[in-house]
Amino acid sequence: MLLKIIMPASTYFLLKSRILLSFFILPLVACPLWGQDWQKKHLSAEDYHLWSTMELHRPSSDGRWISYSLIYQNDFDTLFVRNSLNGKTFSFAKGKEGFFLKKNSYVTLADNKLFLLSLDTGNTITIDNVSEYAVSLATEKLIMLQKTAKGENILLIKNFAGQTLKEILTVAQFSLSPKGGYLLYRTDNETNDSLILLNLRNSSNGLAVLEKEKISNFQSAWQKEDQTVSFVTGINDRTEKTLYYFNIEDKKLKKFEPSLVSGFPENTMITSDIFRKLLVSEDSQRIFFALKKKKIKTENNKTPSVEIWNANDKWIYPQQIKEGQSENAVNLGIWLPLENRFSVLTSEEYPKIMLTGKQEYAILSNPKDYEPQFDNEGPRDFYILNLKTFEKKIFLEKQSSDNSLLIPSPSGRYIVYFRDNSWWVYDIQSQTHRNLTEKSGRKFTAVQRILSPEIPCGIAGWTQDDKEIIIYDEYDLWAFNTDGNNYRLLTNGHQSKTVFRLAKISSKKGVDYLYDGLNSEILDLSKSNYLTATANDGKSGFYKLDSGKAPFKLVLKDSYTDQFQSSSIDDTFFYTEQKFDLPPRLVGYNKKQTKTVYQSNPQHEKYYWGHSELIEFSNSKKELLKGVLIYPAHYDPAKKYPMIVYIYEKQSDKLHYYRNPSLLNENGFNVSVYATEGYFILLPDIALEKAQPGISALDCVSAAVTKIISMDIIKKDKIGIAGHSFGGYESSFIVTQSPIFSAAVASGSITDLNSFYYTVGKQSGKPDMWRFKTEQWMMGKAPFEIPDAYDQNSPIRFADKIHTPVLLWTGKDDQIVDPKQSIEFYLALRRASKKSIMLLYPKENHLITDAKNQKDVADRMLQWFNYFLKDDKSIDWITQGLQ
Predict the structure, then answer these.
(1) Measured by CB atoms within 10 angstroms of the end CB, which terminus of the chain is less buried, N or C?
(2) Nearest CA to 576 among 658, 515, 631, 498?
(3) Bridge partner list, 158
(4) How many angstroms separate the Cα of 450 from the Cα of each of 425, 513, 650, 653, 721?
(5) 160 in helix, strand or coil?
(6) Residue 839: partners with Cβ closer than 8 Å, 6 or more residues away
(7) By C-alpha distance, which of 116, 121, 120, 96 is closest to 106?
(8) Rounded distance, CA 797 to CA 736, Å?
(9) Residue 526, helix vs strand vs coil
(10) Radius of gyration of the chain from its Cα atoms, rounded to whole angstroms
(11) pLDDT of residue 35
(12) Which long-range contacts (CB under 8 A, 24 or more apart) does 827-832 make?
C-alpha cells in the first residue's frame, strides 16, 4: 500500500520559484519548543526503538528528487522518495532501492509489489506478486516476473506509463543486457525449456536461441555493448553445466563441446561459481567460465583417521582445509569460441588470477610461493599470460600479495604496483618497468588502517586511454603520466593537513572485484570532479576540482559528512551530515547553497543529550595526541560525574559520529546510552610503540585521563575502563599497572601474548603469529627471541597486581580470539583472589549477534559500572559473584 505524505506548508520557507536552482538554507524540521530545556526529558531504554538509520540512494537526474531508506532495529524498513524543493514525500514500507525513470516517475519493489509512481500527480500503479524486475532506460521499458493465482510465472513488459506491451507465459528467469537493448528469458514447460532472446527496441517476437532442452536454470554474461551473450545451462546448481555463446548480430549459437577441444582435463565439469563468474571479454573473443572436478566416490574420500602436520608444509593443516583442497578447487577456464580453442587458466600451481583491462592478458600467482612465512600474507611471483598465444612470462618477483597494490589499467596496457616505497608501472607491450613517484619527493604511505603500520594510500583511478594514473598520498591527489615523463599535484591538502579523496557515489556497494583483482575507475580530469575533504580539526565536507585549478571549497563544516550522491546537473548533489548531538540529516547542495531536505530522528530533540569535544594531550614521549570527550546528557557544570574510558587505537576521527541509543550492540557498548546515563566517555587515541603494545597503551591512556582530571569535571575516584578485542587486551593490561580505575570490562580480549602467539585462528586456519610481526602487537620477533618483551606486555603476567574489579566476557565460539584467553585470565584472577566475573555466551562469535545476548551483555556492562562508579549496590548478580 502506498502512503503519500504531504508535509505542512508551515514546515518550510515559502518558495519564490519551483525552479531547481532555487536552493536555500532551511532550518531543521522540528518543533521549536522542543529545544527548551524545561520540555526535554531523560531518555530511557523503552524509547530506543524510535531511532532509525538513514541510507541514501541515487537522486533523480535533475536533482529535484532524492530517495532514502530509514532502517530500524526491529527490521521494519521504509523507503522514501522526497522532493528536495517542496518536501512532498512518498513512502513504501519494506521498499528496496528503486529507479527514477524518465517522464518524472519512480519504480520500486516493496513486499512483492511493484509500484510505479508518478512524481507529478502522486498517482500509483501497483502490480501484485512481483518477484523481480529490471529497468531498461534505453528503451523505456519495465520488465518484471509476476506469479499468477495458479502459481504460474508471467513475464510482463510495460512502458514507463505502466501500459502493458507484452505478456509472456511460463517464464521462469530473465536477464537484461547491460545497455538495456535485449532480454534473454527462459520458458519453463513440462517437457522442454527454451531460451528466448527479445529485442526490446522493436515489437517483434523473440528469437529462440535454445529450445527443446531441459534447462531448469541458466546464468548469463553479456558483452558490455550488447553484441554477444554467453550462458551456462543445467538441471540444478550441483549438476554439470553446458556452455554456450551467441552472437546477436549474426544470430549464431555455438556450444562448447569439451570432447572436441584439446586440453580439457579428465573428470572435470563446467559449473557456476560466484568467485569464478562467467564473463565475456570486451571484444567478444574470449569466454571465461568455472570448472571443477567431478566427485568420484572412493575409499580415499573417507575422513582420515589422523591429521598429519608437517613442519615443512607450505600451510599448516587447518589453513589448507580453510583455503580449500586442490581437488575441490573451482578453477577458471577460457574458451575462444571463434577458434574453438580452450585452456585452463588457474590450477594448483597458479590458483590466483587477475585480468587486465579488455581481458587480453591474465595475471597468475601462487600465494604459497614463499611459504612458510609469518606475515598475514606472504609475497608472490606474478606471471603475465597472453590470452591469444597463451605464452606466459614472469614480470614481478617476490611482490606483495595485496591486490590493492597491483592493479591493471582499464585499457589493458599497464599494470601499476607498489614496491620499494614507490609506485611503479609495468608496460605490457614493451615489457618495461618505470618508477612513477620517486622524483616527486613525496611519501605515498600513511597509517590507513587501525592496528597496522603505514601502508600505501592507494590510487583513485586512470584517465582515458591510460594516459595518467591518479595516486593518493597522505593528503593529496597526484596525476602521473604513465610514460614516466611528467606529474602534477592536483590538490594542496598537505599544507593544512586536509585529506582529499575522490568523492564516490555511496550506493556503489563494496569493492569492485574481478576474480582475484580490482577494477579501476576511469576519470575525466578535463571535467569537474568532486572531492571529499577531512580537516585536521575534525571538519569535513566537499570540494570541487576543475582542470588546471586548485580545489574549490563547496562545503566544509564542523560535522561529519558522508553518503555523497550526485545528480546529472553540475554543482547539485546530496549528502548526509551529523554530529554527536545532531542526528544525520539529508542535505542538498546547489550553486553554493545548502538546504536541509530531511532531518532524521526528529524525536532526538525531545531528550537530553550529550555533546562531544576534541581534546589534545601528550604522552611521555611528548607526542601530541587527540581524543574525543563526550559529555553527559543534561550536563551541569556545578556537578562532577563518573567517567568511562573506552579504548582501541585511533578514535578521534569519531568526534562527530551520531550513535543511535541501543542495547543491541555487537560489542555491548553504546556511547549515547552511557551519556544519557550520566557518564563522561573518553575515547583517546593511542600511539602504539614497537614491542611495547601494552606499555605504550598505558602511557597514552594515563596521559589522556590525567588531562581530563585536570579539567576538574569528573570524579577522579570513579573512573572505569572498557575495550573489546585489542581494546580488551589494552584494558586488561592497563588495570594491571594503574590503580586509577575503579571498574573494568575486558571483552573478547587477549591476555597472554605468549600463548596467543602460538594459537591457530579458527576463522582463518592461520597461526595467529602474523599479528605480532608488523601488525597489531608489532613485536617483530617471536617469544623465544624476546621473552622479556612478551612477559612485560602480557596482562596475565601481572594478574596478582590488579586492584580493579574486572568483568570479562567473550563468545564461547569466538573464531578470532580464542575464548581460552579470557578463561586463562579469569583463572589467574581467581587464583590471585581478585574481584572478577566472567560471562561466556554459547554459540556467539567474536561479536555478539543474537539480540537477546546483546541486550544481556549491554545491561550487565552498564550494571557493572553503575555498581562501582555510582555505588548502586542493588545489583544482586554482582554482589553474589564478588562476595
Answers:
(1) C
(2) 658
(3) 142, 164
(4) 28, 23, 7, 12, 20
(5) coil
(6) 807, 808, 809, 810, 857, 860
(7) 116
(8) 9
(9) coil
(10) 30
(11) 43
(12) 828/751, 828/796, 828/799, 829/799, 829/802, 831/799, 832/799, 832/800, 832/802
Number of other CB atoms surrounding residue 400 within 10 Å:
19
Helix/strand/coil for 311: coil
End-to-end Cα separation, the chain, in angstroms? 59
pLDDT, tens digit, for every residue of 256-315?
999 999 999 999 999 999 999 999 999 999 999 999 998 876 555 567 789 999 999 999
Instruction: Give Cα 670 distance to the centre of its chain.
Output: 21
Q: Inform me whether the pLDDT recorded for 585 exceeds 90.
A: yes
Count Cα neighbours of 691 within 13 Å in the Cβ-side half-sphere: 9
How confident is the model over 262-276, as pLDDT tens digits?
A: 999 999 999 999 999
Q: What one-character DSSP code corresponds to residue 493?
A: H
Rounded mean pLDDT of the chain? 91
Residue 518 and residue 403 in contact, taking contact as beta carbons nearer than 8 Å: yes
Q: How far apart are CA 110 and CA 132, in angstroms?
A: 10
Reported as a single tens digit per residue, the pLDDT across 214-258 is 788 899 999 999 999 999 998 766 778 999 999 999 999 999 999
Position 16 scores a pLDDT of 30
Residue from 549, 588, 550, 547 nearest 571 by CA: 588
Q: Report the distance separating Cα 139 and Cα 101, nearest Å.
A: 11
Q: Which is nearest to 824 in space by CA: 715, 767, 750?
A: 750
Pairing of strands 641-646, 714-724: parallel
Grid coordinates representing 784 are 623465544
CA–CA dist 246, 862 (Å, integer): 63
Q: Cell numbers 569439451 correspond to what residue?
A: 258
Cell numbers placing 420: 620499494
Other beta carbons within 10 angstroms of residue 44's beta carbon come to 10
DSSP 767: B
pLDDT of residue 771: 93
Q: Going by DSSP bridges, is the β-strand pair 78-83/89-93 parallel, antiparallel, or unpaired?
A: antiparallel
| Residue 220: predicted pLDDT | 96
Q: Does an H or E element contain 119, and which?
A: none
SS (H, E, C) 411-444: CCCEEEEEECCEEEEEECCCCEEEECCHHHCCCC
Q: Are 426 and 432 in contact (CB under 8 A)?
A: yes
- Reading across the β-sheet that carries 113-118, which strands appear in turn? 99-101, 105-110, 113-118, 124-128
pTM: 0.91
* Contacting residues for 287 by C-beta, under 8 A, at least 6 apart: 221, 230, 243, 245, 256, 278, 279, 280, 281, 334, 335, 336, 337
Q: Which three cell numbers stand for residue 119?
A: 512524481
Least Cα distance to 441 among 417, 419, 422 occurs for 422
Sheet bearing 141-147, strands edge to edge: 130-136, 141-147, 153-159, 164-169
Q: How far apart are CA 590 and CA 216, in angstroms?
A: 51
> What SS3 class is residue 118?
strand
597 and 584 Cβ atoms separated by less than 8 Å: no
How far apart are the C-alpha atoms of 827 and 842, rounded to whole Å? 19
Q: Which cell goes with 280? A: 565475456
Helices then strands, counting H and E runs in the chain, come out as 11, 59
Q: What is the band of 39 on the pLDDT scale with cuts at 50, 70, 90?
A: confident
The residue to which cell 576534541 is assigned: 614
Res. 27 pLDDT band, cuts 50 70 90: very low
Rounded to 10 deg, the angle between the 726-737 and 693-710 helix axes is: 70
Cβ neighbours of residue 83 under 8 Å, at least 6 residues apart? Answer: 64, 65, 89, 119
- CA of 601: how far to CAs of 67, 517, 562, 564, 578, in Å? 17, 40, 17, 20, 11
Q: What is the pLDDT of residues 788-830, one digit of tens each?
A: 999 999 999 999 999 999 999 999 999 999 999 999 999 999 9
% pLDDT > 90, the chain = 84
